[in-house]
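Today's session is about reading a structure prediction critically. Students often jump straight to the picture, but the first step is always the sequence itself: look for stretches that repeat, for charged clusters, for runs of hydrophobic residues. Only then move on to the predicted structure, which in these notes is written as discrete structure tokens rather than atom positions. Here is the chain we will use throughout the hour.
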Amino acid sequence: MNRHEVLMAILDMVCRELGQDPEEVKKGSRYPDKVEARHIYFYLARQHSNGYNTKELGRSLGKDHATVIAATKKINGLMQVEAGYREKMNRFLVMFSNEFGINKPMPKVEPIVTQRAALLIAKNEELTKEVEELRVQNDYKSEQLKEYMHRLNAVEAQNAILESQNKLLKDLQKQN
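Below is the predicted structure for this chain, in token form.
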């Protein structure tokens, strides 16, 4: 097989697995399923085969080298943050190895995911503490508010008594 035939065989394998028509994927459609097929093709051909540069890969589907670089970065990024995507790419690599006899290991991405998870857990714990402190403050303020309302009601009741006593006094003074 010549170089172009190998690239088209990689594309066929990706499209077969994703249920896509290779001709539709080559057309440059921006539908997400077509874009994903192109990205996976670029990733596999670039990262796990020998001698294909970004310019050559881009030309194989009518794209430029920057598209290949962006696609490869995107796949790497998805594998770092989504375990399901990492598993999907592992399946592609097994198929790739079986069909083409090229066996390069999947890059390790667990540490990045683990570090991110640890940071998120620490932030979650910090926010949980802040929420609890605010609840305590809120409970204290609620108790203070209840006390103030109780005092206000007592003062209003006393004012009402004083007003009625003043009225009685005025009425008595008028009678005298």
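Discussion point for the tutorial: The mean pLDDT is 86.
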